[in-house]
Amino acid sequence: MEFSTKAETLQPQPTGAQLFVCTETAQPENDTARALCQSLEEGQQFAEAKIPTADGIQAAAVLRLKDLNRASLNKAAAEAAKWAQHQTHVGVDISLFGETDAPNVAEALAVAFGNAAYRFDRYKKEAKPAKFETAVFHSAHTDKVNAALAVAEAQVYGQTICRDLGNAAPNECTPEFLAHTAKAEAEKLGAAAKIIGKDYIQENMGAFWSVAKGSVQNPYLVELSYSGAADKTAAPIVLVGKGITFDSGGISLKPGANMDEMKFDMCGAATVIGTFCAAVKLKLPINLIAIVPTCENMPAGNANKPGDVVKSMNGLTIEVLNTDAEGRLILCDALTYAEQFKPQAVIDVATLTGACIIALGHDVSGVMGNNQDLVDSLLAASKAVDDKAWQLPLFDTYKEQLKSNFADLPNIGTPGAGTITAGTFLSYFTENYPWAHLDIAGTAWKSGGEKGATGRPVPLLLNYLRHLA
């Protein structure tokens, strides 16, 4: 869908739906909008009506904002988007808002519109695409609103890539498909891409290879790079995403119920690819690298076994106590690989632990790291776009839970603090640069009637990258 602006107040028009946005103290001048506003009861924010015109019936609606913090904006915008997705063209009047608030309101609405219009039905005999095609925002502050709409468009673009990859069936979205899709999407935007195959992984990345070797699908290491900073040699930000395209648990086999959702175990990779593409689309003035280790975790005669000892890329040996703790095995080698870029910071994103859902539920991502400034920046970015995250500690005492009689590290800790011990495990491979870890096991997808990838935490990461320069 397309977003644009006009430097005028929305006027009655013969075609297209009309949405008037106001507050409790600033009411629209349009008679229909004012009447709808007055019809709202306490606690209500949205009202709609059908207006007879010379050309038929026109949809009109009003959105009354309670306040302008991003969480409230997102909630209100989502309500308006449910209505807007059934329209083809929508004129959005935000003329009541000044140059500071108008861009924020426009961005929240545009993101909500774009996400509401998202459909994933390419496997269905009869596709039902959303009607929504265009939204025109009416405001006197066109330059700032246009800039906000560009951010919204890039975010929706990145989230759509993320959601499409996450929702794809695992017999389609294999490691090869994921790798080549990432390469194609990056190159389409003018960024560089490299795909590293099985031979390099087998020879250099023992932890990664130990997971991959149990599948008939070949593993890949994807490297995307973009040099947007004035100084092309400046230290880059590196994003690392877990790309397990299907996680059976391996020999430590998962229960059969809901195992289909383990196609979402590559949502960390999908997030990194989507964020990278959104940042390139916005032409952010930063140097950025995305690294995606991707493979399947399957049971087989040659698969990892509990008790196996493998050697990681940085030389540490790992005792595999549970083959279902495979994400950290592929990530640890990818994090070691990232060191060669002398990064400004490294952020890994992974659907790493079910324990994160126990701790934080399905609306909040876990964040931890070895650099508090980096963690604070991610938390601030999270709050600014209401893509919720919460810091978990990485005290040295947690290392006491990672002891092995036979190797340098086990791949799981003793019972308790499963999300933190997973992060602690990764910390052994990130000692030479600022690093943060996002556990998105609870936020990357939804189950039940709304089953599907959410596109999170693309908003958080894109907002973080936007505010680096």
Provide structural commentary.
Presumably involved in the processing and regular turnover of intracellular proteins. Catalyzes the removal of unsubstituted N-terminal amino acids from various peptides. InterPro entries: Leucine_aapep/pepB (IPR011356), Macro_dom-like (IPR043472), Peptidase_M17_C (IPR000819), Peptidase_M17_leu_NH2_pept (IPR023042), Peptidase_M17_N (IPR008283). Strands 7, 8, 9, 10, 11, 14, 15, 16 and 18 form a 9-stranded mixed sheet that branches. A 6-stranded mixed sheet has the order 1-6-5-2-4-3, with helices on both faces. Strands 12-13-17 form a 3-stranded mixed sheet. It has 2 domains: 2-139, Leucine Aminopeptidase, subunit E, domain 1, CATH 3.40.220; 160-466, Aminopeptidase (3-Layer(aba) Sandwich). The radius of gyration is 24 Å and the shape is elongated. Strand 15 (365-369), helix 11 and strand 16 form a beta-alpha-beta unit. Helices cover 34% and strands 22% of the residues. The relative contact order is 0.11. With 469 residues, the protein is of the alpha/beta class. It contains 13 helices and 20 strands.
